[in-house]
Automatic annotation (TrEMBL):
Signal peptide extent: none
GO BP term, example: carbohydrate metabolic process
An annotated Gene Ontology molecular function: aldehyde-lyase activity
InterPro entries given in the database record: THDP-binding, Xul5P/Fru6P_PKetolase, Xul5P/Fru6P_PKetolase_N
The name this protein goes by in its record: Phosphoketolase
Domain Xylulose 5-phosphate/Fructose 6-phosphate phosphoketolase N-terminal stretches: 12-71
Species name: Lacticaseibacillus paracasei subsp. paracasei Lpp126
Amino acid sequence: MDTKVKTVDYSSKEYFDKMTAYWRAANYISVGQLYLKDNPLLERPLKSEDVKPHPIGHWGTIAGQNFIYTH
């Protein structure tokens, strides 16, 4: 039985780039859920009809929560 343990270099640029990409994607999804009614993938230019008139919640805590989840 071969029992090799795979280790991760948490200080590598590759790992940092993956974390950054995850954080950016999480922020993108969060903003889309908070502010958009339609066109979340921006397949066309945004129109005023795509944006919620009165979003519920606020952006203030979302970025911080995503940062904590990333780490």
